[in-house]
Design goal:
mainly beta; disordered C terminus; 3 helices
Amino acid sequence: MDMGSGFEIIPLDFKGLQKSLKITGVQGLKWIEGSLFAVFDTKRELKICIDKGQGKFECIFSTSKGNKDIRALTNPGGLAKIDGNNFLIVDRLKKTLYRFDTNSNKLEPYLNLIALKNSEASEILNSQMSQINDIEYRDNKVWFICKAGYSSSVCCVDPKTGELFFKFFTRGSEPKSMSFGYMTDYIWILDSNKKEVSRFDINGNYMDSTVINHKNLSNPVGLGIDNSGKLWIANQLKVKEGR
């Protein structure tokens, strides 16, 4: 996908990787500093993997390595990099951010989003069926998409002050993933129900969108924009397909 119009979609189904790592599904996908990262989850075990080229992924973080905080993170979603070896990952249903260090393999609570106060954003976050599916880190703020039916929205928070900002509503009811374009102020939103990717500017103005018609993308759950502007989309397989 280029930065103006037109989409070049690269599907990822992770079938072979799921078999080798004994995992059941990808939960998040992100291009960070030129590398493709993926979040996997199975039987309360979290794995963060990085693409080493030619579809070969290496696990850089796993809660199976004696991490006692795994019971706290039960519904992993998207991830974002803060700096160095420090990353954030979101628990979709608890609406809580966790920080992990790939060197120490330590996972710890970072920020509870539903404890923050903002009239419009808080109302959406506290709605009964809402969940946080994906996050981004940009300009010292954590951006996130909140799935809440047709009130689904993009918000951001300053983690230092706890100040919460409502940004804009999404176009669909099932936003699964978000990504800033490389060196741009555009935000792409993937809606799994509509199988649509929409582009907004940083102020929430709608730019354009396209429907995903690729035969191998039956359940798109994650997207990333690489440095050349190509759009990568992860497909979540059924459990039986990953065994």
